[in-house]
Write a structure and sequence with these properties.
mainly beta; 3 helices; about 170 residues; 7-stranded mixed sheet; globular
Amino acid sequence: MATTTLEVPGVFHWAKLTEADRDQADWHKDHDGATTISVVVDGTTSKEITDAGVRLLGKPEEDGSGFRYTFKRKWDQGPNMAWANGEPAVFSPDGNRWDWEKDGLIGNGSKGIVFVDVYDTKIGIGTRLKAVQVIDHLKFDKNGGGIETPLNIKNYTTEADVDSDLEDIPF
């Protein structure tokens, strides 16, 4: 099988697509991290991914909204694989390159298309994150969406605050 590219439309989550925010968990340390994106797709798209021979299994969303797939691109696979290293291409709705300074990071709930290379390996079909096109951008919120209600933060370094609050604990 020659390398083909799947177009996977869906809702984005945990887009880590730049050098600064790439996933550097222990299981990626051999390749100096990886860029990753999770995308929630509908049943039809999930079937297309499976029919293409992709070994990844989509995890059903708890709310029934679809199936979540996480696609990755290793950061550094060595000089012989330089063409497959680093950041994937990221595009705006109009097809121009994403401007990280102007457009910002991609927040959860953004919608678009993930382009995934599908290819043969010695152990079966492999995948590699190739590109992302953002169609409906929600800016990344480092606070996770903000706090709906204000917090009642107190100073627990004085005995008066500690003693009065301990009396309210029902045990």
